[in-house]
Amino acid sequence: MTVDAAALAARFAALTLPKDEWTHAAHLTVGAWHVDRHGPVEALTLLRDGIRRLNESHGNVNTATNGYHETITAAYVTLLAAYLAACAPGLPLDARVERLLAGPLAGRDMLLTFYSRERLMSTDARARWVEPDLGPLRIEAVLGVGSYGSSDPPGEA
Fold it and tell me: For labeling, which of 4, 20, 62, 104 is most exposed (least CB within 10 Å)?
């Protein structure tokens, strides 16, 4: 899979990304681009607004039970920042994202490593940041302590 994170992020920002292309992988790619470009704090602010706007452009309403989800977005921003920091220095973002999408961090249920389904899917977690109830939000819990899915950190293999 060839990734062009900047192009996808541009389409996201311009609200030209069709609903059928706004997949889990697209969320992660756009999230990684924002974290890489803006750092996690500003990325979360930009993603929060951008996801809501894109949802609305697709005719989806952001409510207490549908649309934008604060805890999922904030948790992924935290994990994406840790993942990107662990990658080999100088590895281009698109290569880091390709590895991310091929690894365990891209699993659709990956956040259930840290959250019970009930807590993560609660209206409270959708509306605001909710701390994990199963364990601390640490990249090593997904990628393996010091292994990052292999014997080397992402981008070293």
Answer: 20
For residue 124, which amino acid is it?
A: D
| Greater pLDDT, 145 or 32 | 32
The token pair at 88 is 């080999």
What is the extent of the structural domain holding 92?
A: 5-143
Per-residue pLDDT at 20: 96
Q: Is residue 46 in some structural domain?
A: yes
Instruction: State how far the alpha carbon of 152 is from the alpha carbons of 44, 83, 144, in Å.
Output: 28, 13, 11
**Alpha carbon distance 148, 154 (integer Å):** 6
Stretch (H or E) spanning 10 = helix 5-13
d(CA 8, CA 29): 8
Q: How far apart are CA 157 and CA 102, in angstroms?
A: 14
Residue 150 lies in a domain: no
Please give the Cα distance from 111 to 120 (Å, whole number).
8
How many whole angstroms separate alpha carbon 18 and alpha carbon 147? 36
Residue 64 has pLDDT above 70, yes or no: yes
Q: Into how many domains does the chain fold?
A: 1
- Closest by CA to 137, choosing from 74, 69, 51, is 74
